[in-house]
Amino acid sequence: MAAQTITGPRRAEELAEELNRxxxxxxxxxxxxxRGATRPYIDADRLATELSGLADVYLISDAxxxxxxxxxxxxxxxxxxxxxxxxxxxxxxxHDLRRSRLRFAYSAAEGITTTERLLEDGxxxxxxxxxxxxxxxxxxxxxxxxxxxxxxxxxxxxxxMVSLTDGRYATIQVGLLxxxxxxxRLFERGMQVRGVFDESSRRLDVSGMLASPGERLAEVADxxxxxxxxxxxxxxxxxxxxxxxxxxxxxxxxxxxDSTEDLRDxxxxxxxxxxxxxxxxxxxxxxxxxxxAPVRSLAVLPGGPGWLVLPDPAVPAPEPPLLxxxxxxxxxxxxxxxxxxxTANVRIGVPSYLEKPDxxxxxxxxxxxxxxxxxxLPRPSPTMLAAxxxxxxxxxxxxxxxxxTQRALEESRATVRATLLxxxxxxxxxxxxxxxxxxxxxxxxxxxxxxxxxEKELERLRRRNRKGAQRDHRETLSSNDLFADPDDxxxxxxxxxxxxxxxAGEKAERPLGPYRLGPRFVSSLEETPGVDRAKVVDVVVxxxxxxxxTSAGRQMxxxxxxxxxxxxxxxxxxxxxxxxxxLQRNAPQARRLHFWRMSEEIEFSRVVLHDDYEP
Length: 615
What we know:
By secondary structure, the chain is α+β, with helices and mostly antiparallel strands. It is built from 15 helices and 21 strands. It folds into four domains: 125 residues, Glutaredoxin (3-Layer(aba) Sandwich), CATH 3.40.30; 72 residues, CATH 2.40.50.140; 182 residues, CATH 2.40.50.140; 136 residues, YaeB-like fold (2-Layer Sandwich).
């Protein structure tokens, strides 16, 4: 399935108008093209395929459409320059931008990651709209057939392919099952699965295979060591998850033997650590996990792989910490080996809902730490702590040096963390400022062109006014004094307006086309308050001469049978199509003009309020 392509200002303005209406029933995903790119970095077609039935996906493919869309959207809610954004249903995202995050992609490589983030944003928005309450958009889960099959592979982090027993194939949308966890951590080739199958979208819903937290924890033996993901870290306690949605708090005493240790120096969000579990998950402990204890990770689904993994053993261990260098090795009898601290490079498969609220900052810090040469102190064993305590007591001078070194190390750590955070923030601001500058330069160039055009038009009007300074006295008479019939009066006003509006040299190119006034037109003009008659006459002339077709301010478009951009146009039995053109903008109930367009003639129907869609 392909994304819907938006080209030209008119379709972009219609899309912006649709997004600003509160009645949408599905989220909308908008993807744009980077300046100078021949194709979008974000995979819009994949988003359309995987969000089929859950969200509408649009690709804005040219600069004119991008500018028109930006003008029609509230401040700070636009999307442009190769970025993408998910607009949830309702209008809360206008005031709370966290509900509709702008996702950037500056290259094809970044486009892969951004596509995954937009897919997760779309699934979250669909869930908030209630579209996932009945799986895969069906009217009822009960009507879908129950099928079974075997997992044939995981083509990407958000999908798993299944070969059904009847020979058909199906896809599992991982974001609908367990958002944020990659498919390879939920499924593996040859794994048996079962669920309900939607033939139209070929989606297989295996959520019925999920067991309750109590059932999963009942499988854990008393004292067994499991892998857990750090969900949050405070100075005196941390929150870890044994499975997505199954988490518990671990106090400092069960993390380290040092009662003064700040846990934020030992653990980080997203880190994978081994945890000893009490009976039925009643208690969790990190400090008393033996180095040689067998460790396993719980599987989210029966027969599936563990959802967490330890670091690759091939990765070199950190260098000995400074604490080991302070005490000479020959003076430490029978040194006890220590287990290295697990750093943030094991953030594989961490669900987004286990992140801190400021998920972007947490991610940046983890990546920057992983790429920096800073070495983190390991968590010492009780034996080592006892041996070091004896040595420190026997050597007061060395104790003071050690404390001074530790304080300097802590200050250095804090400085490095602050520097890395500031670097990440400045880089993000630089990218945003560069993109904004490009748009401002393009807008300035466009304004210069408009000013030059208007100066030429003003000079032409001055010359024409000098030549026509003397007018016949009859032109000062009101059209009310000239005609008794309202239709004749309006036609006279249209003719006079055309004569004054269209320069003499252009009258042959822009004649008044054939038209007629509908039976309700003149009465609707008199009954609709808040609009000047001269303005209506002026817009009628623009419609008849073709000026309204190219004017962005007129917002002329086909009147549709519904409010959606894909609804059918309103047509009469004689083949005439109804059009809608703006008389006013940025005003309450801004007035509109409806008219019927036939092959060789235009019939003006009514002057209406903004929310009146009757032809």
